[in-house]
Design brief:
Elements: E1 13-20, H1 25-36, H2 43-60, E2 69-77, E3 80-86, H3 108-115, E4 118-124, E5 127-135
């Protein structure tokens, strides 16, 4: 007798939340992601990257001005996690600073570059989104 077994696919998960552009919201971003991604092998890296992106958003874009806000999107499937942080734009483009510039700060995107498998940004001075990916490195049973 031949039994038909249907492969079960895990449904991708997707969450979005808007945050006020206040410095204390970085803690809320970390709590939001930690709750959703509990058990993800690379959770510490995801949390650190989200913290850096949230802080950068509030420091370097209109999202950090009075009444500003930013949005965090998180998607997860069997391949891993992708995070997006969308801001309200600003006069400069996101970039990794050179080592010579680090004495004055600017470690945020360097940290993102070191911890995320990939990262990129898209947008204009009116609004941007930074994307960072974290593949699942642990075998699932």
């Amino acid at each position: 007798m031949l039994l038909a077994v249907h492969a079960q696919h895990e449904t991708p998960m997707y969450w979005r939340r808007e945050f006020p552009g206040r410095p204390e919201e970085a803690r809320s971003v970390r709590a939001f992601a930690a709750h959703l991604l509990a058990g993800f092998p690379e959770l510490d890296d995801v949390l650190l990257v989200l913290d850096e992106l949230a802080v950068n958003t509030m420091r370097h874009t209109r999202s950090g001005e009075d009444g500003g806000s930013f949005t965090v999107d998180i998607s997860m499937d069997v391949a891993g996690v992708i995070v997006y942080v969308a801001d309200q734009g600003g006069p400069t483009e996101p970039r990794v600073r050179s080592l010579a510039d680090l004495a004055e700060g600017g470690r945020g995107l360097l940290t993102v570059d070191a911890l995320a498998a990939t990262w990129s940004w898209t947008g204009t001075p009116r609004g941007r989104t930074i994307r960072a990916t974290f593949p699942c490195t642990e075998q699932r049973g």
